[in-house]
Amino acid sequence: QPAADALKTALAGGSTLGYALDHMREAARQGMMSTIPLQARCGLAMRYGPRSIGHQDPGATSCYLILDALVSAWTRHHQ
C-alpha cells in the first residue's frame, strides 16, 4: 500500500512519471523494511508467533523486488 499511495501522490502533485516511479520504489523499500520489527499475524509466518519478529515479511519483500524490477526496466527504456 505505501508504494501505491506514493505513486498516486506523486502523480497527483504533477511529478514526472520517472520521478513518481522512483518515489514508489522507495516507498516500497521503506514499507518492506518496516515489517522487520513486526510480529506476523497471517500467512505461514504466523505459526512462529513472537519468533517472527526481526524477520522481513516475504510478501513485502517480493512486492518490492517486483516493483524494483519494473522501475529499473522502465528507466532503461526511457533514458
Q: What does the secondary structure layout of this molecule look like, with pairings?
A:
Elements: H1 2-12, H2 17-33, H3 58-77
Helix pairs in contact: 1-2, 2-3
Protein described:
The longest helix is centred in the C-terminal third of the chain and has 20 residues, at 58-77. The chain is 61% helix and 0% strand. It is mainly α and 79 residues long. Helix 1 (2-12) runs antiparallel to helix 2 (17-33) and helix 2 packs antiparallel against helix 3 (58-77).
Global shape:
elongated
Number of strands: 0
Q: Roughly how many Å apart are the termini?
A: 28 Å
Helical percent range? 55-70%
Mind describing the biggest β-sheet?
none
Low-confidence segments: none
Estimated structural class: mainly alpha
Mean pLDDT: 95
Provide the β-strand percentage band. under 5%
How many alpha or pi helices?
A: 3
The secondary-structure element order is HHH
